[in-house]
């Protein structure tokens, strides 16, 4: 199971890494706040910062903007999401849990990327008597989501029209 987790991490990094991670940007912001405090010019107004502090803040904002706004869902990203979904309904619970973490990360990075797996979820929920118990459990955990993702309330009437009858059965 540990080799599957390592392979899962490598596989998902191909779609999640764009030169910098969001956690690194958060560290840069914290460092910037420390630098602003250390080099605070007490003779001027509170908004007067040294030039290099302002330039560093602009650079961090540009990194954050490029990280959050220039992502398009490519065919490879769709394949990664679908493979992560297949591992999210795996029979081993540890593999399922790790794959779901990476899957929810992908959902948060690409807008409307959840549409890739909705048909497969509906297919598994509709024939629940023939499908493995672990697959149903994985589907339900994906529907439940995490703190930032909850599939049954996404703003798409087409998805709601397909998904809600499958959940109700």
UniProtKB/TrEMBL annotation:
An example Gene Ontology molecular-function term: peptidase activator activity
Domain of life (superkingdom): Eukaryota
InterPro entries: PSME4
Any one GO BP annotation for this protein: proteasomal ubiquitin-independent protein catabolic process
Cellular component terms per the entry's GO annotation: cytosol; nucleus
PANTHER family noted in UniProt: PROTEASOME ACTIVATOR COMPLEX SUBUNIT 4 (PTHR32170)
Protein name: Uncharacterized protein
Protein source organism: Rotaria sordida
Lineage of the organism: Eukaryota, Metazoa, Spiralia, Gnathifera, Rotifera
């Amino acid at each position: 199971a540990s080799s599957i987790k390592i392979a899962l991490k490598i596989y998902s990094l191909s779609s999640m890494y764009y030169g910098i991670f969001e956690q690194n940007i958060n560290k840069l912001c914290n460092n910037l706040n420390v630098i602003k405090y250390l080099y605070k010019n007490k003779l001027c107004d509170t908004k007067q910062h040294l030039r290099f502090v302002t330039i560093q803040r602009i650079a961090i904002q540009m990194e954050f903007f490029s990280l959050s706004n220039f992502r398009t869902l490519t065919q490879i990203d769709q394949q990664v999401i679908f493979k992560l979904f297949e591992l999210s309904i795996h029979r081993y619970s540890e593999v399922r849990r790790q794959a779901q973490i990476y899957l929810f990360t992908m959902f948060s990075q690409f807008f409307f990327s959840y549409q890739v797996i909705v048909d497969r979820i509906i297919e598994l929920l509709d024939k629940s008597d023939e499908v493995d118990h672990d697959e149903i459990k994985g589907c339900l955990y994906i529907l439940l989501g995490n703190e930032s993702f909850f599939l049954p309330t996404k703003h798409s009437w087409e998805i709601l029209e397909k998904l809600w009858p499958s959940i109700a059965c």
